[in-house]
Amino acid sequence: MDAKKRHSIVSTDKGFTIIELLIAIIVTSIVGVAMVSNSISQQRAANMVRQVAQMQQQLRGAVYILEEDIRIAGYDPQSTGLFGITDVRRYDITNEVTAPVVTAAPLGSPALTLAYDFDPNNAATNSNGILDEPTFSYLLYDDNADNIFDLARDTNGQRQLVAEGIDAIGFAFAIDTDGDGELDRTPNNNIIWAVDSDNNNTLDTNLDTNDDGIIDINDAGGNFVIEAADGAAGLINPPVPLNQIRMVRIWMVARTRNIDPQYNSTDQFVVGDRVVPAQAGGFQDNFRRQLMDHTVQFRYMGI
């Protein structure tokens, strides 16, 4: 082989140029960043799915426990009339060690106090016709002073945690004032869902103030509070005593543990006689929330 041919063969045997290497590095970097970003996004999505599932589980568990107690409320084999729902007033939200006190209407958070003549831990006081202490209440409190509210079952100041991350709770009550075994209804044949608007432990307001069969923001007038003044169907006069309650309706709003920076909601929830939050535009805090609306019928109190 002559020198000219050898030179030709050598000159064509060359590697990558610097530009080609730079292009390869850039492409590889872009692919790597995309893969990492996709992995992070998937992890965030999976974490949020878990948090939403936990939130839903908190709601379902809380409603289940409430339902069990509400169903047995009023159990009164001695027919004393002492058992059932004994208090529906609003209380202030306190920490774990501070006793809640009744607050002036319309402030405070709804609570529900129940009693039944059944003590599984003491045969001597079971079904004896005496309102044995303690009765028990469901209310919101701030467990760790972290401004995150939780639902508790309060027995004489001893609180058992029922559910975490409960932003708001509300109750309303279907009634039978004439004792005919039928729930009282409005002129449009809708169930009356009554609340205590002035915190005197009697029921004076029907939440469906426009009598359209739906309890929504349209019943709240202009102040995000549903009250008798909002419509002719809202007034219950005379007020109804608690022993005429036959069903309980529960509203509960829960939130996730952590924020989702990419989530924002303008939702407002009707929770009993309140719209939560009161301000238009929603919470604006990147927490995901869910409302549960559930109705429970008494087992031992009519209907």
What is the terminal-to-terminal distance?
111 Å
* Tertiary shape: elongated
Low-pLDDT residue intervals, each spanning 5 or more residues: none
**Average predicted confidence as pLDDT:** 84
Measured on Cα atoms, how large is the radius of gyration? 30 Å
Structural class by sheet pairing and helices: alpha+beta
| Helical content band | 10-25%
How many structural domains in the coordinates? 1
Hey, roughly how much beta strand do the residues contain? 25-35%
Biggest sheet strand order reads 1-4-5-6-7
Largest sheet: 5 strands, antiparallel
The number of strands is 15
Tally of contiguous helical segments: 2
The string of secondary-structure elements, in order, is HHEEEEEEEEEEEEEEE
